[in-house]
Design brief:
Strand content: under 5%
Number of helices: 2
Order of helices and strands: HH
Largest sheet: none
Shape: elongated
Structural class: mainly alpha
Radius of gyration: 30 Å
Length: 77
């Protein structure tokens, strides 16, 4: 088996920082804590409000479309 060359490793190829969790997220122990760290309550409230608004808009569109379909089925050709 060949031995590796006995040359010095270039400094740009040396890993100085060890990968892993850093900062104030080291205390996270489970998925719920991770979720709560990423999405605080005000952000979730905003998401819920705007999602409900979009659902209301879509319901109006669907209701109009269903009304038109019902009217079209009433006409006799």
């Amino acid at each position: 088996m060949d031995e590796p060359p006995k040359t010095k490793t270039a400094s740009r190829n040396v890993v100085v920082k060890v990968p892993g969790i850093k900062g104030n997220v080291k205390h996270i122990a489970n998925e719920l804590q991770a979720w709560q760290t990423l999405f605080q309550t005000p952000m979730i409230d905003s998401i819920v409000i705007y999602t409900n608004l979009e659902i209301s808009r879509q319901i109006v569109k669907i209701t109009r479309m269903l009304g038109l379909l019902i009217l079209l089925t009433q006409w006799k050709y």
